[in-house]
């Protein structure tokens, strides 16, 4: 391969003329990096405690922008979001949150292995603390046979 250097007889300023076009390549690079950052960060912004929620056929309701989740794990430990708290500190921890308001909705998630009495105990703690706007969280879909109501036996 060879290259030749030719001498030009015309004006030297024409080789270095200003270009009035916008170079969008760096802009596209920045946008792609931001896209990757948001794709990685989006799953991290949800509550990710391993809880086996029961299913429900109820119509799903609109979720608020920043929901407050209280979760009861199978070992009966309680968490606000992903932070573990003691039951005696549950209301105090909710009151200490930045958006503390007794009028906000508290979304209660309980594993299907949690006894009904334990769920009611946490509901009673929240009610006694002044949180009366509570919503129970379940998975969308058809309930499984184990969760289906059983008809009472006829005498």
UniProtKB/TrEMBL annotation:
<protein>
    <recommendedName>
        <fullName>Biopolymer transport protein ExbD</fullName>
    </recommendedName>
</protein>
<dbReference type="InterPro" id="IPR014170">
    <property type="entry name" value="TonB_ExbD_1"/>
</dbReference>
<keyword id="KW-0653">Protein transport</keyword>
<keyword id="KW-0997">Cell inner membrane</keyword>
<comment type="subunit">
    <text>The accessory proteins ExbB and ExbD seem to form a complex with TonB.</text>
</comment>
<keyword id="KW-1003">Cell membrane</keyword>
<keyword id="KW-0472">Membrane</keyword>
<keyword id="KW-0813">Transport</keyword>
<dbReference type="InterPro" id="IPR003400">
    <property type="entry name" value="ExbD"/>
</dbReference>
<feature type="transmembrane region" description="Helical">
    <location>
        <begin position="24"/>
        <end position="44"/>
    </location>
</feature>
<dbReference type="GO" id="GO:0022857">
    <property type="term" value="F:transmembrane transporter activity"/>
</dbReference>
<dbReference type="GO" id="GO:0015031">
    <property type="term" value="P:protein transport"/>
</dbReference>
<dbReference type="Pfam" id="PF02472">
    <property type="entry name" value="ExbD"/>
</dbReference>
<keyword id="KW-1133">Transmembrane helix</keyword>
<dbReference type="GO" id="GO:0005886">
    <property type="term" value="C:plasma membrane"/>
</dbReference>
<comment type="similarity">
    <text>Belongs to the ExbD/TolR family.</text>
</comment>
<comment type="function">
    <text>Involved in the TonB-dependent energy-dependent transport of various receptor-bound substrates.</text>
</comment>
<keyword id="KW-0812">Transmembrane</keyword>
């Amino acid at each position: 391969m060879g290259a030749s250097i030719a001498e030009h007889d015309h004006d030297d300023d024409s080789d270095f003329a200003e270009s009035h076009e916008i170079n969008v390549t760096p802009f596209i690079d920045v946008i792609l990096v931001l896209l990757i950052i948001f794709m990685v960060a989006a799953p991290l912004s949800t509550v990710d405690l391993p809880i086996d929620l029961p299913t429900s056929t109820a119509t799903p309701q609109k979720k608020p922008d920043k929901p407050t989740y209280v979760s009861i794990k199978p070992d009966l430990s309680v968490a606000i979001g992903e932070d573990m708290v003691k039951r005696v500190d549950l209301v105090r921890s909710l009151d200490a949150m930045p958006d503390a308001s007794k009028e906000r909705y508290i979304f209660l998630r309980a594993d299907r292995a949690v006894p009904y009495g334990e769920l009611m105990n946490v509901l009673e703690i929240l009610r006694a603390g002044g949180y009366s706007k509570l919503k129970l969280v379940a998975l969308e879909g058809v309930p499984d046979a184990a969760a289906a109501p059983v008809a009472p036996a006829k005498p």
